[in-house]
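Q: What residues go here?
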């Protein structure tokens, strides 16, 4: 992600908040590496653990920013239509310019979400997903927002075998200590296509409000990837996300493992 000409601490807060907010957008039953969630839920008493990683690379005006993030995302079916999702991200970033190199690492902000599928008819379903992000990351090091944030997402899905289509519209109240924008809006669409019984191709487009107050351009992305099912319990996935404009990270490589139990 590229930054406007503000202080170093504000520079670092923008991508961290952005990554933290989106890190568990691939919540229960979403097909990681997609950013856009779907309406699927685990089922009563069933659980899922996702171990996801990503590497982002961005360069602008002689400054190179490299970010590596790992996420442990746990989902549990409270009922057939309601899931609890908890995500703990770990972040490492390195910012290099001609004058200096800055590097920090540590746990970022923890998120807790509930996904409720409230409507289902034929191949169309609707859900809402409220969320709370706790300030567990060190905002002085650029690893968190420094305050609790909250969000609400609307999710729509349509499944037409072998195709699936998904829409997310969301609002994030981005409370923070770095004077970033507090009202963040998100919109994204995704599609999946089952190539074989075990292999699925995925694609994603999205845009989100820029948290940097001095940058009026909202970051937008495109993503493609694959999901391979080793068994009914274990999935492997990979993908690459490209920035469609300057504020978005130039490219991000994603990979993950999902275990359902």
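A:
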């Amino acid at each position: 992600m590229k930054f406007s000409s503000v202080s170093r601490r504000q520079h670092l807060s923008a991508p961290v908040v952005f990554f933290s907010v989106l890190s568990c957008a691939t919540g229960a039953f979403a097909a990681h590496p997609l950013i856009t969630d779907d309406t699927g839920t685990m089922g009563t008493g069933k659980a899922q653990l996702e171990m996801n990683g990503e590497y982002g690379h961005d360069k602008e005006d002689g400054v190179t920013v490299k970010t590596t993030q790992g996420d442990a995302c746990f989902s549990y079916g409270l009922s057939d239509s309601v899931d609890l999702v908890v995500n703990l991200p770990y972040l490492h970033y390195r910012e290099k310019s001609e004058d200096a190199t800055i590097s920090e690492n540590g746990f970022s902000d923890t998120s807790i979400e509930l996904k409720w599928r409230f409507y289902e008819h034929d191949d169309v379903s609707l859900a809402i997903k409220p969320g709370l992000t706790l300030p567990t990351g060190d905002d002085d090091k650029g690893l968190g927002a420094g305050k609790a944030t909250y969000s609400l997402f609307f999710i729509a899905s349509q499944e037409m075998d072998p195709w699936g289509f998904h829409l997310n519209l969301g609002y994030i109240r981005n409370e923070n200590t770095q004077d970033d924008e507090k009202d963040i809006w998100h919109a994204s669409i995704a599609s999946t296509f089952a190539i074989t019984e075990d292999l699925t191709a995925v694609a994603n487009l999205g845009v989100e409000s820029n948290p940097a107050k001095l940058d009026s351009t909202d970051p937008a992305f495109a993503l493609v990837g694959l999901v391979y099912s080793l068994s009914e319990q274990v999935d492997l996935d990979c993908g690459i996300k490209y920035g469609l404009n300057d504020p978005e990270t130039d490219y991000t490589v994603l990979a993950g493992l999902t275990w359902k139990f």
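A: Context that may help when evaluating the design: Residues 221 and 244 are 5 Å apart (CA to CA). The two ends are 36 Å apart (CA to CA).
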